[in-house]
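Quick one: co-fold with flavin-adenine dinucleotide.
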Amino acid sequence: MTRRGPDIVVAGAGVVGAATALGLARAGLRVTVVEAREAAPWTAAAPPDLRVYAIAPASADLFAALGLWPRIVAARAQPYREMRVWDAGAAGELHFRASDAGGTSLGHIVEQGLLQHVLWQALQHEPNAEFRCPARVAAVLEDEDGVAVELDDGSRLRAQLLVAADGADSPVRAASGIEVAERDYAQRGVVGFVRSERPHADTAWQRFQPGGPLALLPFADGLASIVWTLPTAEAERVLALDDAAFGDAVTRAFDGRLGALRTASPRAAFPLRLRLAERYVQGRVVLVGDAAHVVHPLAGQGVNLGLADAAELVALLRGARDAGRPLGAPTLLRRYERSRRSANTLAAYTFDALERLFGSDAVVPTLLRGPSLALVDRVAPLRRFFLRHASGRAG
Ligand SMILES: Cc1cc2nc3c(=O)[nH]c(=O)nc-3n(C[C@H](O)[C@H](O)[C@H](O)COP(=O)(O)OP(=O)(O)OC[C@H]3O[C@@H](n4cnc5c(N)ncnc54)[C@H](O)[C@@H]3O)c2cc1C
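Sure, here it is.
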């Protein structure tokens, strides 16, 4: 079956794909979103989603522009007003306050499931958007006039452009022949919720240690979400501990900074890698989010970089539509690629360098760590540089 085509097909409705699709539809473009996973509605009464994001102010601005931020905050978004970063093997601490950035918070901790739920609901009510779910992009065929997207139910969509927001293993990227540069960190990010003996003080905490950093992010109801980076075998070991032993292990890894930490949820682990697409554009296919770049989670910026891709692409395509230019024009798509690829590559290698500096127990990196933290903490321009990046407003 061939139906009258939308202007744009978006493959994947994770947070980045759904935000891109909604932004395009609100800009007056006709969009079909194709998502493989069934909807899993979020409710406040259910246990919180283990996957939480540190949403930077620039990303909150994007949700606000889509009219969704008040709903997200009313549902469950925990502001963090301070950030403390220190190292197990060196003195010195980095301490940021919201007032340093001239705001009331440095960002918000929000569940992935909540963001996705709010975005999907908005898409379902959006007259310019069609939501095909569950459905999978099975094949992509390009010709001079546009792109044909074949779904696994045998239907076919024709559009001017296909946006691949189908995640780190992006089948659309692979089908388009776009190569990736990759570094496997041989680490896993262990995630879960804990309850701390002393209050988390609305602070995002991170302690670096040779195996990888442990982040403790403030959450509602006195809970805190942890992202504990560990070498793969060590991650398997801590995942298998009983709750009491896991609580003790995470308390030690956190240096007892908030007293005893107790397990408050199941745990999960994600493999960590650096993966950068060599191109963001191939013909009429454009990559956004993890399909284009997967970064180390130590700075909590993965989804924020993807949302910045979404904002830039929507702005360029809206401009093209207003000027009556074709959406698949190579010059237009190259502009998107140039701007986002350089910003994302710089961010990815900065996080990679931090991982190498703080994850090593060799003598030179160990000697550099304490002075580096102290230097950034004391030198005003360096503090401003880090705050601008953490807020997602560096560009
Ligand atoms: C341990 C850990 C902690 C993290 N913490 C943070 C953090 O604090 N802050 C932050 O910003 N980032 C964080 N990240 C990164 C973040 O998880 C990712 O950057 C983000 O999920 C990427 O979103 P996305 O929408 O691009 O991709 P995804 O969330 O992977 O979404 C892709 C979507 O595409 C769909 N799909 C796949 N194939 C097809 C197909 N053929 N057809 C149709 N649909 C398809 C999938 O079902 C999925 O819904 C963390 C990552 C890890 C591993």
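If it helps, The radius of gyration is 21 Å.
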